[in-house]
From TrEMBL:
Protein name: SPOR domain-containing protein
Pfam assignment, any one: SPOR
InterPro entries according to UniProt: SPOR-like_dom (IPR007730), SPOR-like_sf (IPR036680)
GO MF terms held by the record: peptidoglycan binding
Residue ranges of domain SPOR in the record: 117-197
Length: 230
């Protein structure tokens, strides 16, 4: 009797446990999902429409211009152009040495240069240049009136407004022609072509801080190609 009652009790207990299990008695309560931080959109399923506030924020972010960094280019500094001067010519070595000392005191190192004498390549007879073209033309008319047809008024260069009266291969012929013209009242001059005496110079490379005005007060100069300097 007792055994039968125990079996019935166990059977009823098992049926009750099974019914409790089927009814969800073992399910854990779902934990509440905390809301996302401000400005961060929450998770959504694929195909689920965006909330109006999220959709507006996304559209505003897409429309905002994107700043692009543009590299700033620094303009290249132009290279300094080297300048060189040749001072002179000087009448002698002593004058050159004095100018060299003055240039050195002004912060400019100058090197001596000598050009040798050149012999004449011929001779010319001419009337030296006049101040104006009109004066040269008037002298030409005087030469023409004296019966001389071999003359020409020069137009260009250092010889402009001078009157050419012929070229000769030697000094003797040029001097003879000079005397003939002077006898007729023409102020002719016989002069060697290319005949120059030896000359003394000073060559210098100008530093960036050189004062050209102060240097010009020391000695006359002219610009030269720096490649020709030693």
């Amino acid at each position: 009797m007792i055994l039968r009652a125990a079996i019935v009790f166990l059977l009823v207990l098992n049926i009750g446990i099974a019914a409790w299990w089927v009814s969800g008695g073992n399910a854990m309560p779902a934990a509440a999902t905390p809301p996302p931080p401000a400005g961060v959109p929450g998770l959504r399923l694929v195909g689920e429409p965006l909330a109006p506030a999220v959709r507006a924020a996304t559209a505003a972010a897409s429309a905002a211009p994107v700043a692009v960094a543009v590299p700033v280019q620094t303009p290249a500094k132009p290279a300094a152009v080297e300048q060189c001067l040749r001072f002179g010519p000087f009448v002698d070595g002593a004058a050159r040495d004095a100018a060299r000392a003055a240039l050195s005191a002004a912060g400019l190192a100058a090197l001596p240069r000598d050009t040798p004498a050149r012999s004449a390549r011929g001779w010319k007879v001419h009337v030296p240049a006049f101040a104006t073209r009109a004066e040269a033309t008037a002298m030409g008319e005087r030469i023409k009136a004296a019966g001389i047809s071999d003359w020409y008024v020069m137009n260009e260069g250092d010889a402009a407004n001078s009157i050419a009266l012929g070229r000769y291969g030697g000094e003797e012929a040029a001097r003879r022609r000079e005397a003939e013209l002077k006898a007729k009242g023409i102020p002719a001059v016989a002069e060697a072509l290319g005949d120059t005496a030896a000359q003394a110079w000073l060559d210098a490379r100008l530093p960036a801080h050189a004062n050209r005005t102060a240097l010009a007060a020391i000695a006359a100069s002219k610009s030269v190609d720096c490649a020709t300097l030693r």
